[in-house]
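Backbones bend. To wit:
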Amino acid sequence: MKFFFSLLFTVSILLAVFNVFYNSVKSVSEVREWAFLTDHEKRHKLFGDTYDFYTFINKNSQENANILFMPKDEMSFYLARYYLYPRLITRVTNEEQVAKFSQTGTYTHVATFVPLQVDTIIPKSSKDSEGFLYRLP
């Protein structure tokens, strides 16, 4: 029984040493890949063109803008709330809601990943590689 516990202890020590060695090698290879990237390049690598769309919205809207946002999924909505702060982001799910909210006069922009068919209400748009930003009158 004593032999079994000493064997188990030895195996666990060897596994721990291997784990430390493996994580050290992995850290070096990851640092080499990410260390020389700028913050923008790192975020683009993580989120793709979606992040570029958020920076496009930041450049083309004021900080006090109220934006109707039609996200493509849940993650893009919450990322928009994070990256577009202090702008007020309101989620809409279809074009009928866009038409309804855009007539209230509260919102300044509509941001969406697909082109809208309500161009008679919202004539001006700017296109980025990932989405569209419409300026409300």
Observations:
- The mean pLDDT is 86.
- The two ends are 82 Å apart (CA to CA).
- The beta strands are 66-70, 88-91, 109-112, 124-127, 132-135.
- The longest strand covers residues 66-70.
